[in-house]
Design a protein that fits this description.
Protein name: TetR/AcrR family transcriptional regulator
Keywords: DNA-binding, Transcription, Transcription regulation
Order of helices and strands: HHHHHHHHH
Pfam families: TetR_C_13, TetR_N
CATH topology of one domain: Tetracycline Repressor, domain 2
Strand content: under 5%
GO molecular function: DNA binding
Number of helices: 9
InterPro entries: DNA-bd_HTH_TetR-type_CS, Homeodomain-like_sf, HTH_TetR, Tet_transcr_reg_TetR-rel_C_sf, TetR_C
Helix content: 55-70%
Length: 203
Amino acid sequence: MARPRAFDEAEVLEAAVDCFWSQGYEATSVRDLAAEMGITGASLYNAFGDKRALYELAFDRYVRAGVHDRIARLEDLPPLEAIETFFAEVVENARADPARKGCFLVNATLELAPHDPEFRGHVMDVLDAMQAFFRRQVEKGRALGVVTRSGAADEVAGMLLGQLLGLRVLSRVDPSPERLNGMLRPLFALLRAPPQGDGTAPP
Protein backbone atom coordinates (compact mmCIF):
# COMPACT_ATOMS: atom_id res chain seq x y z
CA MET A 1 0.00 0.00 0.00
CA ALA A 2 1.41 3.38 -1.03
CA ARG A 3 2.37 5.72 1.78
CA PRO A 4 0.54 9.07 1.78
CA ARG A 5 2.60 12.08 0.79
CA ALA A 6 3.96 14.02 3.75
CA PHE A 7 3.54 17.39 2.04
CA ASP A 8 0.87 19.61 0.50
CA GLU A 9 1.21 19.19 -3.27
CA ALA A 10 -0.26 22.61 -4.12
CA GLU A 11 2.10 24.29 -1.66
CA VAL A 12 5.24 22.62 -2.94
CA LEU A 13 4.23 23.19 -6.57
CA GLU A 14 3.86 26.89 -5.80
CA ALA A 15 7.38 26.83 -4.38
CA ALA A 16 8.59 25.20 -7.59
CA VAL A 17 6.92 27.98 -9.60
CA ASP A 18 8.79 30.58 -7.54
CA CYS A 19 12.11 28.75 -7.96
CA PHE A 20 11.86 28.31 -11.73
CA TRP A 21 10.43 31.82 -12.15
CA SER A 22 13.33 33.40 -10.26
CA GLN A 23 16.17 31.41 -11.79
CA GLY A 24 14.95 30.00 -15.09
CA TYR A 25 14.95 26.38 -16.18
CA GLU A 26 18.62 25.79 -16.92
CA ALA A 27 19.99 27.59 -13.85
CA THR A 28 17.67 25.72 -11.47
CA SER A 29 19.00 22.40 -10.14
CA VAL A 30 17.02 19.59 -8.56
CA ARG A 31 18.83 20.45 -5.33
CA ASP A 32 17.58 24.05 -5.59
CA LEU A 33 14.05 22.81 -6.16
CA ALA A 34 14.10 20.33 -3.28
CA ALA A 35 15.42 23.01 -0.91
CA GLU A 36 12.80 25.56 -2.03
CA MET A 37 10.00 23.01 -1.90
CA GLY A 38 11.07 21.66 1.50
CA ILE A 39 11.22 18.04 0.35
CA THR A 40 13.96 15.55 -0.45
CA GLY A 41 15.24 14.94 -3.95
CA ALA A 42 13.84 11.42 -3.78
CA SER A 43 10.40 12.72 -2.84
CA LEU A 44 10.56 15.19 -5.72
CA TYR A 45 11.32 12.46 -8.25
CA ASN A 46 8.71 10.10 -6.80
CA ALA A 47 5.96 12.73 -6.81
CA PHE A 48 6.69 14.78 -9.93
CA GLY A 49 9.17 12.92 -12.12
CA ASP A 50 12.27 14.66 -13.45
CA LYS A 51 13.05 18.39 -13.59
CA ARG A 52 11.50 18.80 -17.04
CA ALA A 53 8.23 17.23 -15.90
CA LEU A 54 8.16 19.42 -12.79
CA TYR A 55 8.83 22.51 -14.90
CA GLU A 56 5.84 21.71 -17.06
CA LEU A 57 3.65 21.30 -13.97
CA ALA A 58 4.92 24.60 -12.58
CA PHE A 59 4.31 26.30 -15.94
CA ASP A 60 0.76 24.94 -16.10
CA ARG A 61 0.07 26.12 -12.56
CA TYR A 62 1.32 29.62 -13.37
CA VAL A 63 -0.68 29.77 -16.61
CA ARG A 64 -3.87 28.61 -14.91
CA ALA A 65 -3.69 31.38 -12.31
CA GLY A 66 -2.00 34.07 -14.38
CA VAL A 67 -3.78 33.66 -17.71
CA HIS A 68 -6.83 31.38 -17.73
CA ASP A 69 -8.28 32.56 -14.42
CA ARG A 70 -7.77 36.19 -15.49
CA ILE A 71 -9.47 35.61 -18.82
CA ALA A 72 -12.43 33.95 -17.10
CA ARG A 73 -12.69 36.81 -14.60
CA LEU A 74 -12.58 39.55 -17.24
CA GLU A 75 -14.52 37.83 -20.01
CA ASP A 76 -17.90 39.42 -19.27
CA LEU A 77 -16.73 42.98 -18.63
CA PRO A 78 -17.49 45.61 -21.29
CA PRO A 79 -14.96 44.90 -24.07
CA LEU A 80 -12.73 47.96 -23.75
CA GLU A 81 -12.74 47.63 -19.98
CA ALA A 82 -11.81 43.94 -20.27
CA ILE A 83 -8.81 44.72 -22.48
CA GLU A 84 -7.66 47.71 -20.43
CA THR A 85 -8.04 45.83 -17.15
CA PHE A 86 -6.00 42.92 -18.51
CA PHE A 87 -3.14 45.31 -19.28
CA ALA A 88 -3.60 47.28 -16.05
CA GLU A 89 -3.14 44.10 -14.01
CA VAL A 90 0.04 43.30 -15.93
CA VAL A 91 1.40 46.77 -15.15
CA GLU A 92 0.49 46.37 -11.48
CA ASN A 93 2.16 42.95 -11.32
CA ALA A 94 5.33 44.44 -12.83
CA ARG A 95 5.29 47.29 -10.31
CA ALA A 96 4.91 44.81 -7.46
CA ASP A 97 7.85 42.66 -8.63
CA PRO A 98 10.98 44.10 -6.97
CA ALA A 99 13.06 41.11 -8.13
CA ARG A 100 12.08 41.88 -11.75
CA LYS A 101 11.35 38.25 -12.50
CA GLY A 102 9.12 39.31 -15.38
CA CYS A 103 6.49 36.92 -16.69
CA PHE A 104 7.01 33.17 -16.29
CA LEU A 105 5.24 32.61 -19.62
CA VAL A 106 7.48 35.06 -21.48
CA ASN A 107 10.58 33.70 -19.75
CA ALA A 108 9.63 30.17 -20.79
CA THR A 109 8.90 31.36 -24.33
CA LEU A 110 12.41 32.77 -24.64
CA GLU A 111 14.31 30.03 -22.81
CA LEU A 112 12.67 26.69 -23.61
CA ALA A 113 10.21 27.09 -26.46
CA PRO A 114 12.78 27.67 -29.25
CA HIS A 115 14.60 24.41 -28.45
CA ASP A 116 11.82 22.14 -27.19
CA PRO A 117 9.09 21.43 -29.79
CA GLU A 118 6.74 19.78 -27.28
CA PHE A 119 6.98 22.65 -24.85
CA ARG A 120 6.69 25.15 -27.71
CA GLY A 121 3.27 23.64 -28.40
CA HIS A 122 2.21 24.33 -24.81
CA VAL A 123 3.40 27.92 -25.06
CA MET A 124 1.57 28.45 -28.35
CA ASP A 125 -1.65 27.13 -26.80
CA VAL A 126 -1.43 29.82 -24.11
CA LEU A 127 -0.56 32.59 -26.57
CA ASP A 128 -3.44 31.49 -28.79
CA ALA A 129 -5.81 31.59 -25.81
CA MET A 130 -4.79 35.17 -25.02
CA GLN A 131 -5.13 36.26 -28.63
CA ALA A 132 -8.56 34.59 -28.81
CA PHE A 133 -9.61 36.53 -25.68
CA PHE A 134 -8.53 39.79 -27.27
CA ARG A 135 -10.28 38.88 -30.53
CA ARG A 136 -13.54 38.20 -28.71
CA GLN A 137 -13.34 41.59 -27.00
CA VAL A 138 -12.57 43.34 -30.30
CA GLU A 139 -15.53 41.64 -31.98
CA LYS A 140 -17.87 42.51 -29.10
CA GLY A 141 -16.57 46.08 -29.08
CA ARG A 142 -17.19 46.45 -32.79
CA ALA A 143 -20.73 45.17 -32.37
CA LEU A 144 -21.24 47.89 -29.75
CA GLY A 145 -19.54 50.55 -31.87
CA VAL A 146 -16.78 51.26 -29.36
CA VAL A 147 -13.80 49.52 -31.05
CA THR A 148 -12.26 50.64 -34.32
CA ARG A 149 -13.12 48.68 -37.45
CA SER A 150 -9.68 49.30 -38.89
CA GLY A 151 -7.95 45.95 -39.54
CA ALA A 152 -9.18 42.39 -39.23
CA ALA A 153 -10.24 41.45 -35.69
CA ASP A 154 -7.60 38.72 -35.43
CA GLU A 155 -4.88 41.12 -36.58
CA VAL A 156 -5.92 43.69 -33.97
CA ALA A 157 -5.88 40.90 -31.37
CA GLY A 158 -2.41 39.93 -32.55
CA MET A 159 -1.27 43.53 -32.14
CA LEU A 160 -2.58 43.51 -28.57
CA LEU A 161 -0.80 40.22 -27.84
CA GLY A 162 2.46 41.56 -29.29
CA GLN A 163 2.19 44.71 -27.20
CA LEU A 164 1.52 42.60 -24.11
CA LEU A 165 4.62 40.46 -24.66
CA GLY A 166 6.76 43.52 -25.35
CA LEU A 167 5.43 45.16 -22.21
CA ARG A 168 6.40 42.17 -20.10
CA VAL A 169 9.92 42.07 -21.56
CA LEU A 170 10.41 45.80 -20.98
CA SER A 171 9.11 45.50 -17.43
CA ARG A 172 12.17 43.43 -16.49
CA VAL A 173 14.34 46.45 -17.29
CA ASP A 174 12.07 49.33 -16.30
CA PRO A 175 8.81 48.40 -14.55
CA SER A 176 7.84 51.99 -13.83
CA PRO A 177 4.11 52.60 -14.41
CA GLU A 178 5.00 55.85 -16.18
CA ARG A 179 6.91 54.02 -18.92
CA LEU A 180 4.54 51.07 -19.19
CA ASN A 181 1.35 53.15 -19.19
CA GLY A 182 3.00 55.49 -21.67
CA MET A 183 3.23 52.54 -24.07
CA LEU A 184 -0.43 51.72 -23.56
CA ARG A 185 -2.10 55.10 -23.97
CA PRO A 186 -1.55 55.33 -27.74
CA LEU A 187 -2.49 51.66 -28.11
CA PHE A 188 -5.83 52.21 -26.41
CA ALA A 189 -6.39 55.38 -28.42
CA LEU A 190 -5.92 53.40 -31.66
CA LEU A 191 -8.30 50.74 -30.39
CA ARG A 192 -11.21 53.09 -29.75
CA ALA A 193 -13.76 53.74 -32.47
CA PRO A 194 -13.71 57.32 -33.82
CA PRO A 195 -16.52 59.52 -32.48
CA GLN A 196 -19.69 59.50 -34.55
CA GLY A 197 -20.11 62.44 -36.87
CA ASP A 198 -16.40 62.87 -37.57
CA GLY A 199 -16.88 62.21 -41.26
CA THR A 200 -15.71 58.58 -41.12
CA ALA A 201 -17.64 56.42 -43.56
CA PRO A 202 -19.79 53.71 -41.94
CA PRO A 203 -18.64 50.11 -42.37
